[in-house]
Amino acid sequence: MSERETWTTRVGFIFAAVGSAVGLGNIWSFPFQTGSNGGAAFLLIYLLAVFLIGFPAMMMEFVIGRGSSMNPISAFEKLGYGNWSVAGALGVFTSIVTLAFYSVVGGWVISYIAGSLTGAYFGDAGTFFGAVSAGPTSVLTHALFMAITIGIVAFGIQNGIEKATKVMIPAIIVLLVGLAAWGATLDGAAAGYEYYLSPDFGYLAANFASIVPSAVGQAFFTLSLGFSVMVAYASYLGRDDSLPADGGAIVVVNTLVALLAGFVVFPVLFAIGAEPGSGGLGAAFVSLAGAFGQIPGGSILGFVFFIILLLAALSSSISLLETPTSYVVDNYDYSRKQVATGLGALVWAVGIPTALSTNTLGWYNAVVFNLLLPVVVLLFAVFVGWVASDLSADEIGRGTTLDAGFATTWLWWVRIVIPVAIGLTLVLGIQSLLIRAGVLEAAVILG
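Given the sequence above, the corresponding structure tokens read:
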């Protein structure tokens, strides 16, 4: 087996980790989740979840990854806790399941880029979405998106992932800022901003049980937590880098991109009188595509928006594929190109049912958000906070100028606050899944 790669620079790691975080979760899922859960009411809980749960949870994955310099499954064995490898394996499994449906949505983006150039969705955005979101076209674009993802991962950490994200992330930010500035000129901007930034606390109180799991799940999804991605990425880090500083930079940039996406999406939706959150998982495609078809210069603006969406989707998909790839490359005598191609083909096959049915895609998404991500993060919290606490405290302090008090506070936060918060989220999430299953069952019976 060849020598294990590392990041060329610290900035390269930050860009790659930001790229993993700044994905469809920010630009596709975040506006939909915000619109479906009361706008600013959801945003408030989401921001709390990001900084109070997401940031310390990211440090947990960093500690495991850099402390072992191994992939998410082998990391626990390297640290002397081989029986905990199941936690890393569950994270890798979650990455595969997520990429299976995530790639389908990435394929939709490719269809919409083409549709922006031809004007194919301008007449009837709903019909266009129905044609490209499920069926043969979706299967083919799913394959094309996976092929691009495989190509980047196959080139490795330095020549593939690091170089790609150094181009993608600045491009995403610059283009989003431009679209947000344009959105401010629309007639619906003021109403969109009010919905987005002024919390309705009555709505929050009445819908707390549904908003919390959605917000925490969104925080995990958008920060790539629970997939073992940050374990894999941190395993390529140098020993002297400051984990809190790097994690803070990643969380702040990721959150700013999510907020920017809202400043683009909500002015557009309110400008055409569309209801935020309507359209389900296809909201960003149906509502926004319809809006682009109604405004001057819509074909150009639509093209730019969906290019941003494609870059964001790819920056995350490569991290999801890298997670299982790192395990196989670390433990078996296969080339990275062989592994990336084989695993990419497997992911494509697993995702075919979601390419044939948006209902199936919705189920994949719901299970990941409400069940898999919280379980994995909870397992990591128990391991870092209680099982390997001495190792964790030493690792979080390495390379940082923060005093020992930070490590102690962080460790107790991981021990107490995160498990309680995730436990509550998991209970509510499972309840949400059961309700969803009951609705689907009733629908079948009634049909």
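The radius of gyration is 21 Å. Try to locate this feature in the token string yourself.
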